[in-house]
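> forwarded from #structure-qc
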């Protein structure tokens, strides 16, 4: 299980547009919110992805990109994005290699049957590639607000400069 202070594992995965995202390309440039979710088009996953999409501009202003990852394939991600108007990038981890790297591929019991699946989890990774927060088994409702507040803490200088600027302009 990854923890705060660990270096985030690097990976490359295709997205819903079948373009490859390489984690190494953002290291040193942007913060990353990487959230893992079980499946496209389930009520909780839709709520979570829509909430991240609704707040994407706020994350961008904090120099942070938001990425979702699940075992669904690129075409399923594309349909999910189109159907729900999602703007965030969804990564297809069909072989669950990245899920395993991040420790979110777990055995769980559903209706008395044990099977492997994705533990809904979010990782907040700073520009240097260090995991600042590892949030496991999260509930979708209210989660994005919590994550946004944590990302704001990564940019204290920027936030302080903006608030000073706003006070001067007032």
């Amino acid at each position: 299980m990854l923890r705060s202070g660990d270096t985030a594992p690097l990976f490359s995965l295709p997205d819903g547009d079948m373009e490859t995202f390489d984690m190494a390309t953002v290291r040193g440039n942007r913060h990353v919110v990487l959230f893992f979710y079980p499946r496209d088009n389930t009520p909780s996953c839709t709520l979570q992805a829509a909430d991240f999409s609704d707040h994407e501009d706020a994350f961008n202003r904090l120099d942070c990109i938001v990425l979702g990852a699940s075992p669904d394939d690129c075409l399923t991600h594309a349909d999910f994005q189109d159907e729900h108007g999602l703007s965030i990038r969804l990564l297809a981890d069909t072989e669950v290699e990245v899920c395993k790297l991040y420790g979110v591929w777990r055995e769980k019991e559903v209706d008395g049957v044990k099977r492997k699946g994705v533990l809904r989890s979010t990782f907040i990774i700073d520009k240097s590639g260090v995991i600042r927060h590892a949030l496991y088994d999260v509930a979708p409702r209210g989660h994005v607000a919590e994550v946004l507040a944590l990302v704001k803490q990564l940019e204290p200088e920027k936030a302080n400069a903006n608030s000073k600027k706003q006070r001067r302009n007032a």
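QC bot note: The first strand starts at residue 12 and ends at 14. Helices lie at 43-54, 56-61, 74-84, 97-101, 143-152, 156-169.
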